[in-house]
Specification:
Elements (H helix, E strand, L loop, with lengths): L19 H9 L3 E6 L36 H12 L7 E6 L9 H12 L4 E8 L6 H11 L3 E9 L3 H6 L6 H12 L4 E8 L6 H14 L3 E6 L2 E2 L3 H7 L8 H14 L5 E4 L9 E3 L6 H14 L11
Parallel strand pairs: 1-2, 2-3, 3-4, 4-5, 5-6, 6-8
Antiparallel strand pairs: 7-9
Helix pairs in contact: 3-4, 7-9, 9-10
Length: 316
């Protein structure tokens, strides 16, 4: 697409934001897919260390619905999940994605062994580790820094919101100050960090969600994930929704909020995700989210309608 039509520098199509696909193709020269792996790890706000039940939106699978079977070895999980991906992309490289649960919530030796086993799998060019800020320490950060010298490493830190009142409501069991400590522990070692934000959390309006994006923008992270809040069966959020205590965002609201957030995020920050996946068998609301392509297309159209792009209103 001509840049006269699309003014955004980090794009070779109609996207006016820095897509993960664009970044990975530029870095590795071909399609790269994530292979979701599962170490069977819990979380401190689930096992009683800091809280019980986990975040109000988290399913029993701990965000591992699309990942491997933790009863299997890393190698077996990788082959199983990869075989599904090969139905979409026959020739690509892979990022080993430790997604389910909190993937630094274990002994450092155990983590190092599994991360390095994943790195040695055929076609793997990177490792992605999803975790919480309060499950990092100096020893683990040093271990991750050594791993990042060997490969493209991204540590995904779930923030969800910068507002402590919301964090308390969703049973996050850590504060924004805690997040900043964990973020600095990684960033100071040169480790790529991807920050997660969730739009549509209970009690948050458009202004609060935008404030979260602005604060994260000030950190200039390597990447950001923007999630839509899903109501999944069996969660505390499902109880709130079914009792009338929670109303999900409409598609129009979500699209406008995301476009607002993209405008204030640095243009170099990679947008790993622009919406979220909820297992259809477990999803209660919002049902419009099951059509991911419609949501993504609506975001593209709104950015074009505004004649806008990621970073347009970014302030250092």
């Amino acid at each position: 697409m001509s840049k006269a039509i699309n003014p955004f520098a980090y794009s070779d199509d109609n996207k006016r934001y820095h897509t993960y696909n664009y970044y990975l193709r530029g870095r590795f020269g071909k399609k790269v897919s994530k292979v979701s792996l599962n170490l069977g790890l819990s979380c401190p706000n689930r096992d009683g260390t800091k809280g019980r039940g986990g975040c109000i939106f988290c399913s029993g699978a701990r965000s591992g619905e699309f990942g491997g079977d933790p009863c299997q070895s890393i190698e077996s999980q990788f082959e199983s999940v990869k075989s599904v991906l090969q139905g979409k992309w026959s020739a690509c490289l892979y990022i080993a994605y430790f997604q389910a649960g909190t993937n630094t919530y274990a002994d450092c030796g155990f983590l190092k062994e599994n991360f390095e086993r994943a790195l040695n799998l055929p076609g793997v060019v990177g490792v992605s580790v999803a975790t919480r800020c309060d499950c990092l320490d100096e020893q683990k950060a040093d271990m991750l820094a050594l791993l990042s010298e060997k490969t493209y490493l991204v540590v995904e830190l779930g923030l969800q919101t910068v507002h402590d009142s919301t964090a308390s409501l969703i049973n996050r069991c850590h504060t924004f100050e805690d997040f900043l400590k964990g973020y600095e522990m990684l960033a100071s070692r040169g480790i790529n960090v991807c920050v997660h934000l969730i739009d549509g959390l209970p009690g948050e309006d458009r202004e609060k969600m935008q404030e979260s994006a602005k604060v994260v923008a000030s950190l200039s992270p390597h990447a950001v994930k923007l999630h839509l809040l899903h109501v999944l069966k069996g969660t505390t959020l499902a109880q709130m929704y079914q009792s009338g205590g929670y109303t999900p965002l409409s598609m129009e609201e979500y699209v406008n909020i995301v476009c607002d957030q993209l405008e204030v995020l640095p243009s170099k920050t990679v947008i790993e995700r622009i919406t979220g996946d909820g297992a259809k068998s477990e999803l209660l609301a919002p049902m419009w989210s099951t059509n991911k392509f419609a949501v993504m297309n609506a975001i593209d159209k709104e950015m074009a309608r505004r004649d806008s792009f990621q970073g347009k209103d970014y302030k250092m």
